Each structure stands twice: as C-alpha cells, then as structure tokens.
C-alpha cells in the first residue's frame, strides 16, 4: 500500500487553536489582501464580511468597514466641486482606507486578527 507523504509543514495546514481559517493557501491570502486595493476601497468590507460569516471575526468589524467606506466616499464626493479646486484629503482618505483594509485582511489568519474571536 502506498502512503502519502505528510504535508511540508504542519503550520501551513493546521488552523489556529479554536479558530477557523480564512485562507487555505497563500495564493488565497494574496488574492483576498488585494481586493481592497484593486477595487480602490469600494470592496474594502468584503473580506471582513466573509471572515465574520466564517466565524473568524466579530460582526462589528465588517459593519465598521461599511461605515468607514460610507464616510470616506461621502467625504470625497462632498469635497468634489467639479474639478475647480484640488482636494488632496479625498485621495489621502481613500489611500488610508485601502492600506488599512489590505493590512487587516492580510492579518486575518494570525493571532493579531482585527476583532478576532
């Protein structure tokens, strides 16, 4: 009988004690982390909604991201005056949202997960 070799490392396939995994592979982690950046912040809350459904984070985390998106995009639209003047605050807020969401998304499978259960 042919035996399968053990996984390369038990740390890759073993979930953290008492918590489900967000990512099954490193590629999945990279793709999920890229979501807030690729969508320019429009889908910043999506990884956290999925994490809350999987039981990885508390439900207030995605709610906070949805609220942050509404405030940031609302502020950006309120500052827009048809291109007559430049408002760097809009871009700064969008970049801050993207970077914060991407960083927190990357940390979802660690002990430092935002709002981890």
Can you walk through the features of this model?
This protein has helices at residues 10-13, 26-38, 46-54, 60-79, 88-106. The protein has five helices and no strands. With 117 residues, it is mostly helical. 56% of the residues lie in helices and 0% in strands. Helix 4 packs antiparallel against helix 5. The chain is elongated.
Task: Break the fold down into its secondary structure elements and pairings.
Layout: H1 10-13, H2 26-38, H3 46-54, H4 60-79, H5 88-106
Helix pairs in contact: 2-5, 3-4, 4-5
Quickly count the helices: 5
Shape: elongated
Radius of gyration: 18 Å
Number of strands: 0
**String of helices and strands:** HHHHH
Which structural class fits the helix and strand makeup? mainly alpha
End-to-end Cα distance: 42 Å
Helix content bin: 55-70%
Low-confidence stretches: none
| Sheet having the most strands | none
Beta strand %: under 5%
Mean pLDDT: 84
What's a concise summary of this model?
The chain is an all-alpha fold and 117 residues long.
List keywords for this structure.
117 residues, elongated, mainly alpha, single chain
């Amino acid at each position: 009988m042919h035996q399968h070799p053990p996984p390369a490392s038990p740390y890759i396939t073993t979930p953290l004690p008492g918590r489900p995994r967000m990512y099954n592979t490193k590629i999945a982690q990279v793709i999920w982390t890229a979501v807030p950046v690729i969508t320019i912040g429009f889908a910043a809350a999506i990884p956290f909604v999925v994490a809350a459904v999987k039981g990885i984070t508390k439900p207030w985390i995605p709610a906070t991201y949805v609220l942050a998106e509404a405030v940031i995009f609302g502020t950006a639209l309120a500052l827009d005056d048809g291109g007559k003047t430049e408002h760097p605050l809009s871009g700064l807020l969008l970049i801050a949202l993207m970077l914060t969401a991407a960083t927190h998304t990357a940390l979802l499978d660690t002990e430092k997960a935002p709002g981890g259960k």
